[in-house]
Design a protein that fits this description.
The chain has 493 residues and is of the alpha/beta class. It folds into 3 domains: 1-200, Cobalamin-binding domain (Rossmann fold); 208-352, Alpha-Beta Barrel (TIM Barrel), CATH 3.20.20; 355-493, no CATH class. The chain has helices spanning 24-35, 51-57, 97-106, 123-136, 147-151, 153-159, 172-181, 192-195, 227-230, 239-252, 273-282, 302-311, 325-331, 337-349, 370-382, 399-406, 424-427, 433-452, 460-467; strands at 3-8, 11-13, 39-44, 74-76, 91-93, 112-115, 142-144, 164-165, 209-212, 215-216, 235-236, 257-260, 288-295, 313-321, 357-363, 386-391. The strands form 4 sheets. A 6-stranded parallel sheet has the order 9-12-13-14-15-16. Strands 3-1-6-7-8 form a 5-stranded parallel sheet, with helices on both faces. It binds cobalamin.
């Protein structure tokens, strides 16, 4: 019997937090390899609940928040030279190399090792993991795939030390190539995803939360997003099968937190999302559901809002990005401020408090000034919702990437590390790190006001001046909500 080891590398970054993270690409691959009769083992260097890892740290269990999220173990590591200008500590998040080595040494030598990759700028962790594997088992072929490998295939081929880099989704063609490399018979059907019964979560001995994938891809082509490159067509699983998978994990493994990682969960909801919710109710699943990846605002119909409340969606994030109508149009006309207002009304009618809803606002898009971001944050606050600030970083292959290259912000052959969202604002003519820090402080402050039901905000100009360090005034209580950027003196808010 063929034996394959699947590895999800650790993260190397300035910051990382476990928002129900699971290597779904690897889990899909594991399901297919098992169906082909192979034995599969998984080392997920981001699994905070792995019993061996807990014991290695001398812990009984990992600390977590009410929603199942939590902090990774982290260790400072040398900052890559191209990031030397970022005044932050660079860390490895997840298992230590020592623990990974000990796990590799307990294992029998596999026929091949399959490694996945996440963010493009997390590649140092991928390289380090591959080199550890190569050191333990010289001669065992290492195959690399995943998001970084798909978006930066040349870089990955040149730099990672893998024997094979397999970019792209697992489609008919790439599966044939993979099956040949692994010397397996009969590749899976090209419809494998639509036919997927369940993800092999039994590979996690101590499963506390699960990521759910009901569909791959997205019919929208937002200018900053790579979804269309990663998976050109929307493919979906049967709603009943998805609900059954969740119900089984809930009953047999006691999992109560499920995070949907879909890019287009609500598209054609009457045929997909609504039946999933209906089935979850019919099966009597008692759990909390989370959508950390933003939902399409215009698709929050009254039925969708009610279904979300009925099955207990607790973390609800909406993708707004900006309140600026021109930029909304340029990015793909996903949602206007009116659309956001309507969605919030519907969620409220379904039983949500507006301030339970998180709204993504993007900062640092090419040509976007601080004024637009402040305006967008204020728009969200005025509507009574909480903003979640996402810092823009250009992703190779997207329209915004091309704009960033054309505007000279980025060389076309830039090291993917330069796309790190902590570093990107350093290079923007409109932003610097302290402006970003102030935008973060402002977001926290506005969210606190919204939570307290205080809806009088300073005017836009004063806030922009403050964000840019040109004006000083006091955001009452900003320190108490974790403000770090100083200069919070002067004018009253
Ligand atoms: C879920 C998700 C999240 C979640 C969970 C995060 C996580 N780290 O897992 C949340 C919401 C928290 C999140 C946050 C962010 N995300 Co995000 N996220 C995603 C999303 C929607 C899905 C990822 C996923 O699970 N896909 C499904 C699996 C099945 O796909 P896959 O891994 O690619 O696997 C397929 C193939 O690659 C292949 N495969 C995979 N591994 C292997 C291995 C081998 C050997 C082989 C042969 C094949 C293979 O098989 C699979 C099937 O075809 C992607 C978009 C996307 N469509 O992928 C964005 C995405 C990864 N995120 C992105 C971004 C920008 C972010 C943020 C930085 C946004 C922000 N500015 O705040 C933050 C960063 C958070 C962090 N530090 O983790 C970008 C990536 C940017 C980059 N430079 O790489 C993406 C691509 C979205 C986009 N905007 O284009 N994210």
């Amino acid at each position: 019997m063929k034996r394959f080891l699947l590895i999800d590398p650790w993260i190397t970054d300035f910051a990382a937090y476990d928002f129900w993270i699971k290597p779904l690409g690897l889990l899909c691959l594991a399901a297919l390899l098992r169906e082909a009769g192979a034995k599969v083992e998984l080392l997920d260097c981001l699994d905070r609940h792995d019993p061996g890892w807990l014991a290695w740290q001398g812990w009984n269990s990992a600390r977590e928040r009410w929603d199942g999220t939590g902090k990774f173990h982290r260790e400072p590591i040398p900052k890559p030279p191209v990031l030397a200008d970022v005044p932050r500590r660079f860390c490895r998040y997840g298992w230590t190399p020592g623990y990974l080595r000990s796990r590799l040494r307990q294992m029998e030598r596999p026929h091949a090792v399959l490694v996945t990759s996440g963010m493009t700028y997390w590649y140092p962790g991928v390289r380090e993991v591959i080199s550890k594997v190569k050191k333990e088992w010289p001669g065992v072929p290492v195959l690399l795939g995943g998001i970084y490998a798909t978006l930066c295939p040349e870089h990955a081929t040149r730099e990672m030390g893998a024997d094979y880099v397999l970019p792209g989704p697992l489609s008919g063609e790439s599966l044939r190539q993979l099956w040949d490399l692994l010397e397996l018979q009969a590749p899976p059907s090209p419809q494998w995803f639509a036919e997927l019964e369940s993800l092999p979560y039994d590979l996690y001995p101590n499963l506390r939360s699960a990521a759910v994938l009901t569909g791959l891809g997205c019919p929208f082509r937002c200018s900053f997003c790579a979804s269309g490159i990663l998976q050109p067509q929307l493919v979906r699983r049967d709603p009943k099968v998805v609900a059954a998978e969740i119900a089984t994990l809930n009953r047999s493994r006691g999992v109560v937190h499920f995070a949907f990682f879909d890019d287009a969960l609500l598209v054609a909801a009457e045929k997909h999302f609504l039946p999933i919710c209906e089935e979850l109710r019919r099966l009597g699943v008692h759990a909390s559901f989370h959508t950390p990846n933003g939902l399409h605002i215009r698709m929050i119909t009254p039925d969708v809002a009610e279904a979300m409340a009925a099955v207990n969606f607790r973390t609800v994030r909406l993708s707004f990005e900006t309140s600026n109508p021109e930029r909304q149009r340029a990015m793909g006309s996903k949602a206007s401020e009116e659309d956001l207002a309507l969605a919030l009304e519907r969620l409220e009618s379904a039983g949500y408090r507006r301030n339970e809803v998180g709204v993504y606002v993007l900062a640092g898009l090419p040509g976007q000034g601080a004024g637009e971001v402040v305006e967008s944050l204020l728009a969200v606050a005025r509507l009574g919702a909480k903003a979640s600030l996402a810092i823009f970083s250009p992703i190779p292959g997207t329209a915004e990437w091309r704009k960033s290259v054309e505007s000279g912000l980025f060389p076309a052959d830039a090291d993917p590390l330069l796309g790190n969202d902590t570093r990107v604002p350093l290079r923007s003519p409109q932003f610097d790190l302290s402006a970003v820090q102030r935008l973060r402080d402002l977001t926290r402050w506005l969210n606190r006001r919204v939570e307290e039901g205080l809806f009088n905000f300073p005017d836009r100009e004063s806030l922009v001046g403050w964000v840019l360090g040109e004006a000083e005034f006091r955001l009452a209580g900003a320190e108490a909500v974790g403000g770090t950027s100083g200069h919070l003196r002067g004018m009253g808010a």
